[in-house]
Specification:
This protein is mostly helical and 173 residues long. It has one domain (2-169). It has helices at residues 16-22, 34-46, 56-73, 79-106, 111-126, 135-154, 160-169, and strands at residues 2-4, 10-11, 14-15, 53-55. It has a two-stranded antiparallel sheet with strand order 1-4. The longest helix is centred in the middle third of the chain and has 28 residues, at 79-106. The protein is globular and about 45 Å long. The chain starts with a strand and ends with a helix.
Length: 173
């Protein structure tokens, strides 16, 4: 089963695909500065992908991991970081989305491999362009990605093919 998502951000720079679907519901949101509320509420629309898809179980693991990280590491999500991220997305979101869709369409193999390879490839390309103030969010996104990919690479609910695909990208970007 698949889930098409505009997830690309939150980790990226995703900042990571991870946060996009779960962060808007994080309880800490109400106390965040306005720029961070905007960051959370707009995440799902900042990267309107057309082809990129996330396997449902990977989405669930990433969402759970992201929620746990936001609850314990929310100090990395500052007003300056959110403003820097929001500015970066205004300038680069469309290009990053197009790149993600292009990589996804060109990737070979199972859905899990297409998802993992296209996300890491796109994040690797665009991560160096993030402003310094957005780096704390990227750091959190990388932690979420690595934790989730580690879990998925050894989870009995995941096929051997997908375990390998997730294991190949668990280092992140």
């Amino acid at each position: 089963m698949i889930r098409s998502r505009n997830w690309f951000a939150a980790a990226l720079t995703c900042v990571s695909a991870f946060a996009v679907t779960v962060l808007p519901s994080a309880p800490a949101q109400a106390t965040e500065p306005e720029s961070c509320q905007s960051f959370f509420s707009n995440m799902s629309t900042q990267f309107p992908v057309k082809k990129f898809q996330i396997p449902v179980y990977a989405h669930e693991v990433l969402s759970e991991t992201a929620l746990n990280a936001v609850m314990t590491e929310s100090g990395q999500i500052t007003d300056a970081a959110c403003k820097a991220w929001n500015g970066w997305v205004e300038k680069n979101g469309s290009a990053a989305t197009n790149e993600l869709d292009k990589r996804y369409a060109a990737a070979q193999g199972a859905l899990c491999n297409k998802f993992a390879q296209s996300f890491v490839g796109t994040a690797s390309k665009y991560s160096p362009q993030l402003p310094a103030d957005a780096r704390p969010i990227e750091t959190l996104a990388k932690q979420v990605w690595q934790t989730a990919m580690q879990k998925l690479s050894t989870d009995a609910k995941v096929s051997a093919t997908c375990q390998k695909a997730y294991g190949n990208v668990k280092a992140g970007w």
